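The instructor's notes for this session suggest beginning with a concrete chain rather than abstract definitions. Hand out the sequence below and ask the class to guess, before any prediction is shown, which regions might be ordered.
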Amino acid sequence: MANLKNNLKKPFWLSLAPKEKVIFAQHLASMLDAGIPLHEALSVLKDQIAQPSLKYVIDVALIDLADGLPLHVSFGKFPKLREKPDPYRKNRLSPFSDAQKANLNNSICLLYTSPSPRDS
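After discussion, reveal the predicted structure:
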């Protein structure tokens, strides 16, 4: 798997908009709820995504899963992609209501921090 990691092309600027993270998390959750295995769900999402940063993150996750690492460890390699609370951004317009933001932030935090039962 080391050869695969060396062949990955890292995007020049690794960033994701909060909305992209939410959509990714929702699609992944839907596929997992439908009983699709994690590796297959990530492969399908990677083929459907145009955003280079997210494709790279998924590529790294797929390689790590093949090496036996849990998903949260793989996502943990990208701390800059986590949304940090910023008190100065409270007045910015958002496509999500406060309740939606709280629900989505909880979902994303769970994705990053808790190992799924399938990873154990």
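Then share the key points. The first helix runs from residue 2 to 7. The chain has a mean pLDDT of 76.
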